[in-house]
């Protein structure tokens, strides 16, 4: 008679490489067959899983067994996370394998009372997988386990589930290692897993059912989060992806978004959960896009929320100086100790500030700010100054190189006040040359009656700004482009300057003077021209316009303090 040789199910050499690929056994949740009919059925099972339900901490119990909201879930999860760390320390100190001789059958057994029955048990936790545990005698093992349960891991009840080791191993590296580590315990019929009563019990049952059927019956956010955490604990990537997708499809709130970003780092770093984290970041960035409207709310956000909001390119702020000032205020509110503030700026907040787009006056303050480490401040300021000194072409190249980076330094945000470049002279007279660039799209948005302001710049101790307008000409016959120069200070202050407005123009692309004159500023006053180029708006914005060079309008003003 011909004898067929059956390959070892857990022999790595018999498993195709594709089984470990994202679309293979450890990753797919779309093409796998449905084994739901075999779940907890002894006819299709080769092992028995003992789920030991452990009590929660008193603090967790006080909130009730059922989480009524995301906030309650978050508090309970944080407590359970701390308790689990303590539990792992205990288990690792008293690591043991329980190995008792019993017939390989479960018929007629009662599992509620194990005091008199000698049952083969394998005590495992995710941190113990793959460890070569030294086997100890049955009596010693049982005595140690009883003592451990009594002192630390009191068992409230035991759930018995019939499992198929090939199905679980195909979905989870955790179970694969557990069933194929080559030790004696990997051949035992009974496997014991301890879980917490409040959430992990139901979540583990849902997870096991998913590993058979590729679907979940639960749809509430808190229940899905529990399953997600347990799926991470037992390395079931397909279930993590499934939970992540369901959570993304639920209505997002500020509370839920912050909770998703506060998940343990091991969960957030998983590829399966990354889309959920990205969705949470995008939600917060969109909600608080205009920081000035939600200053108090944003000031109360945790660090994860601050990172999501201020890493956005679409953040609507007056200038990068305003970003620096706000983050400094936030850090001083949440981290009153100087050492903590320096640490959070060095590790998190510093990379949210785009120093190259700050004004030189504010960069000087960075150098003397105690909240920054003495080695970090000069480095970021020097990098910013080098960027400012680069040609526009090189600046655009540097910005494009980091287009896909999670944190950008050179890419310009959508500032409410447009950045300017200033060259200052002290002698023979106080003078400054100011450059303002506006993109064609920015100019187009001004029609029919909009205006845009520049960031402030200083001359002779006084603050000035540009404002570009679209409005009707003097005779109200057509729209046109206007440019004005204003002084920030209000009140009885007077300040006399000579000025000249110029713009780059084709075909030479040189700066060509448009208007010059002198003006004595008083607080709140401005000087300028309603029709800077002397042409209608349609001609100014035409595709063949002489004033847009590579899609950018280049303006310049020279200001000199009058003697």
UniProtKB/TrEMBL annotation:
Keywords: Ubl conjugation pathway. It holds the Pfam family BTB. CDD domains: BTB_POZ_ZBTB_KLHL-like (cd18186). Gene3D superfamilies: 1.25.40.420, Potassium Channel Kv1.1, Chain A. SUPFAM superfamilies: POZ domain, TRAF domain-like. Residues 150-220 form the BTB domain. It comes from the Eukaryota. One of its GO terms (biological process) is protein ubiquitination. Pathway: Protein modification; protein ubiquitination. GO terms for cellular component: nucleus. PROSITE patterns: BTB. May act as a substrate-specific adapter of an E3 ubiquitin-protein ligase complex (CUL3-RBX1-BTB) which mediates the ubiquitination and subsequent proteasomal degradation of target proteins. This is BTB domain-containing protein.
């Amino acid at each position: 008679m011909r004898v067929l040789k059956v390959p070892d199910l857990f022999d790595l050499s018999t498993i195709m490489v594709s089984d470990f690929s994202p679309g293979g056994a450890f990753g797919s949740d779309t093409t796998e067959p449905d084994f739901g009919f075999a779940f907890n059925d002894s006819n299709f099972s080769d092992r028995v899983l003992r789920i030991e339900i452990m009590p929660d901490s008193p603090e967790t119990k006080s909130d009730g067994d059922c989480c009524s909201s995301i906030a309650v879930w978050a508090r309970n999860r944080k407590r359970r996370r701390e308790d689990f760390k303590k539990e792992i320390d205990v288990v690792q100190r008293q690591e043991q394998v329980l190995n008792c001789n019993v017939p390989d059958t479960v018929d007629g057994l009662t599992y509620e009372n194990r005091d008199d029955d000698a049952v083969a048990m394998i005590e495992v936790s995710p941190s113990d997988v793959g460890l070569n545990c030294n086997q100890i005698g049955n009596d010693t093992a049982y005595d140690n386990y009883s003592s451990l349960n009594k002192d630390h891991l009191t068992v409230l009840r035991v759930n018995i589930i019939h499992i198929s080791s090939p199905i679980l191993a195909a979905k989870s590296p955790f179970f694969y290692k557990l069933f194929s580590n080559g030790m004696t315990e990997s051949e035992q019929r009974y496997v014991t897993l301890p879980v917490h009563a409040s959430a992990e019990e139901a979540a583990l049952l849902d997870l096991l059912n998913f590993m058979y059927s590729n679907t979940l019956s639960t749809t509430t956010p808190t229940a899905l989060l529990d399953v997600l955490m347990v799926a991470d604990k037992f390395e079931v990537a397909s279930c993590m992806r499934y939970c992540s997708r369901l959570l993304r499809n639920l209505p997002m709130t500020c509370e839920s978004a912050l909770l998703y970003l506060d998940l343990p780092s091991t969960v957030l770093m998983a590829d399966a959960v990354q889309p959920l984290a990205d969705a949470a970041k995008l939600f917060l960035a969109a909600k608080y896009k205009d920081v000035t409207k939600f200053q108090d709310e944003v000031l109360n956000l945790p660090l994860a929320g601050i990172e999501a909001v201020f890493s956005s390119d679409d953040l609507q702020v007056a200038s990068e100086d305003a970003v620096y000032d706000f983050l400094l205020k936030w850090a001083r509110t949440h981290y009153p100790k100087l050492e903590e503030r320096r640490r959070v700026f060095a590790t998190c907040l510093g990379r949210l500030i785009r120093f190259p787009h700050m004004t030189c006056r504010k960069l000087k303050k960075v150098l003397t700010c105690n909240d920054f480490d003495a080695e970090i401040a000069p480095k970021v300021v020097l990098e910013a100054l080098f960027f400012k000194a680069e040609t526009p072409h090189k600046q655009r190249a540097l910005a494009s190189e980091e287009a896909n980076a999670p944190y950008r330094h050179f890419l310009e945000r959508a500032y409410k006040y447009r950045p300017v470049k200033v060259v200052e002279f002290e002698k023979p007279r106080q003078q400054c040359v100011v450059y303002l660039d506006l993109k064609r799209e920015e100019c187009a948005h001004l029609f029919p009656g909009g205006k845009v302001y520049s960031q402030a710049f200083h001359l002779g101790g006084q603050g000035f700004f540009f404002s570009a307008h679209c409005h009707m000409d003097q005779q109200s016959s057509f729209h046109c482009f206007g440019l004005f120069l204003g002084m920030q200070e209000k009140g009885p202050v007077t300040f006399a300057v000579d000025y000249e407005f110029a713009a780059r123009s084709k075909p030479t692309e040189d700066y060509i003077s448009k208007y010059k004159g002198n003006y004595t500023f008083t607080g709140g006053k401005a000087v300028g021209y309603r029709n800077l180029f002397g042409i209608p708006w349609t001609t100014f914005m035409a595709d063949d316009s002489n004033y847009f060079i590579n899609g950018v309008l280049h303006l310049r003003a020279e200001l000199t303090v009058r003697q």
